[in-house]
Specification:
- This protein is α/β, with parallel strands linked by helices and 267 residues long.
- Helix content is 38%, strand content 15%.
- The chain is built from ten helices and eight strands.
- α1 crosses α2 and α3 runs parallel beside α4.
- The longest helix has 21 residues.
- It is globular and about 45 Å long.
Length: 267
């Protein structure tokens, strides 16, 4: 274990890897175990996931700042993983103490860890639910308690849609969430893509499949745009994660393996 242990639920098997803790390790966090680090190192042999993870987290920070400056104080984070390493509530509540954040993840270990990590924060909560069931997510107790869906909400789907196969129809699924949002709400997403390095993506899919892990589904730019529907893309549109409103434009010309975009529901 790489840090303090008061975030570990009593009933968690620390020998079973968790995608959420693996992501934490890739970000340089301390909320992970040896089995998680082993998985991450395997993936790193075929895909630059440490760089991708950090790009995605930096994009999250920029998105939350942008949304907070736009007057958004409510955030619903789907497929969130652990609420650690500068996650949504830390950024949003630092900028506006009124901000309310609900994290949603279907992984019981991530949800259990998350509840302990958020203990004492009345403006943030963790829900264990399958994002493929929007009605269950939107009707969950913490969502009803913390978020007012009659007012604008930021719906975050960062690095999660690649885990939704075509059979789950992520386009119809995302449309159901968009329909539940009030005008003036935002959808922020990032998604694995084939468009930059298809060979690396194929190698990653092969590795995930061979190791019995959930498959990943990279998508083209056109397929990612379909997730946004009739929402209006904010500038600079759908771009690679380092290119979305970069803090250091001189370092933003790098392509990546994730598309990113933020779009607003018309009033």
């Amino acid at each position: 274990m790489t840090g303090i242990t008061d975030w570990i639920p009593d009933d968690i098997d620390t020998s079973v890897p968790s995608p959420a803790r693996t992501y934490d390790y890739l970000l340089g966090g301390v909320h992970n175990f040896p089995c998680d680090r082993q998985v991450a190192e395997q993936v790193l042999t075929v895909l630059p996931v440490r760089e991708m993870s950090r790009d995605n987290r930096e994009y999250l920070h920029r998105v939350v700042r942008f949304l907070t400056e736009a007057g958004i104080t409510q955030f619903l984070d789907l497929g969130s993983g652990l609420p650690s390493m500068g996650n949504v509530h830390e950024v949003a509540q630092r900028l506006d103490p009124r901000a309310r954040v609900v994290y949603v993840d279907c992984e019981p270990a991530a949800a259990a860890h998350g509840r302990l990590m958020l203990s004492g924060n009345e403006g943030a909560a963790m829900v264990c639910a399958d994002i493929r069931e929007p009605e269950s997510v939107l009707d969950a107790g913490p969502v009803r308690a913390l978020l007012d869906l009659s007012r604008p909400v930021a719906l975050l789907m960062l690095g999660v849609t690649q885990f939704l196969p075509d059979e789950d129809d992520p386009w119809a699924l995302t449309a159901r969430y968009r329909a539940a949002l009030a005008p003036g709400s935002y959808l922020a997403l990032s998604s694995f893509t084939w468009d930059n390095d298809p060979e690396a993506m194929r190698a990653a899919i092969t590795m995930f499949t061979a190791n019995g892990r959930p498959p990943i589904v990279p998508r083209t730019r056109a397929e990612v745009l379909r997730l946004i529907g009739d929402f209006e893309l904010a500038e600079p549109g759908l771009v690679f994660t380092p290119q979305w409103r970069p803090e250091h434009p001189e370092r933003a010309d790098r392509r990546s393996n994730l598309y990113a975009g933020v779009a607003r529901k018309p009033r």
